[in-house]
From TrEMBL:
All copies of domain Vitamin K epoxide reductase, residue ranges: 26-167
Zinc as UniProt keyword: no
Membrane topology: Multi-pass membrane protein
Chain spans, region Disordered: 1-21
Highest classification ranks of the organism: Bacteria, Bacillati, Actinomycetota, Actinomycetes, Kitasatosporales
Protein name in the entry: Vitamin K epoxide reductase family protein
Subcellular localization, as worded in the UniProt entry: Membrane
Parts of the chain that traverse the membrane: 29-48, 90-108, 115-136, 142-165, 186-207
Keywords per UniProt: Disulfide bond, Membrane, Oxidoreductase, Quinone, Redox-active center, Transmembrane, Transmembrane helix
UniProt-listed InterPro entries: VKOR (IPR012932), VKOR_Actinobacteria (IPR041714), VKOR_sf (IPR038354)
Length: 212
């Protein structure tokens, strides 16, 4: 049976101390990591395949290049697509693969120590920060969108906020009790607003195009 919305925010047991054996997670959160990890991995894999085709044939047009705005080819040929000297999706394949492994481990009953959860927090924070920079570059510098990139953005945002909720609930990230309760009750709201803001920026950036 699919996990409910409440299960996604729920984790097992009370906040852990450094000396304990570790903290696991509820099935909903574990599935969230697996699903978002697979979504990001799929996006990275498709982009890399199209990048290889583009290197082989400069006239190749990716299937997701639909119009002047939704143009994956323009994104792939930009300098921003290789920030670290290699295609960005190669980094994504490693990172999303790690997230999938963590989620599968949690489904199998794994429990991780505080330093591990903070490491996941740092990794997802880097991911969402990098995606935010890429979003700005896409909207205001490259002037094009990649649908597969958008999928990776959404996956990263969701995994970041639910990882944050998990770490706040277990005391790995300090927060007042009132904030903890609010985050658990409205756990869907922050990622929804975050994604909604990006959607509004995309809508307004090319408003004339969408309405023409």
């Amino acid at each position: 049976m699919a996990a409910s919305a409440v299960d996604v925010a729920r984790t097992d047991g009370p906040p852990a101390r450094d000396g304990e054996q570790g903290v696991g997670a509820g099935r909903g959160f574990a599935l969230t990591l697996v699903i978002t990890g697979f979504a990001g991995l799929l996006a990275a894999w498709v982009i890399i395949l199209d990048k290889f085709h583009l290197l082989e044939d400069p006239d190749f047009t990716p299937a997701c290049s639909l119009n002047p705005v939704v143009s994956c080819g323009s994104i792939m040929e930009s300098d921003q697509a290789e920030v670290f000297g290699f295609p960005n999706p190669m980094l994504g394949m490693v990172a999303y693969g790690v997230v999938i492994a963590i989620g599968m481990g949690l489904l199998a009953g794994a429990r991780y120590r505080r330093w591990f959860w903070l490491g996941l927090q740092a990794g997802t924070l880097f991911g969402v920060g990098f995606c935010t920079w890429l979003q700005y570059q896409s909207l205001y510098e490259i002037n094009a969108l990649c649908l597969w990139c958008c999928l990776a953005w959404v996956a990263t945002i969701v995994m970041f906020w639910y990882t944050t909720l998990h770490n706040v609930r277990h005391g790995f990230l300090p927060a007042p009790d009132g904030l903890k309760r609010t985050l658990e009750e409205f756990h869907w709201l922050i990622p929804a607003v975050h994604i909604g803001v990006i959607g509004m920026l995309i809508l307004t950036r090319w408003w004339d195009f969408w309405t023409s």
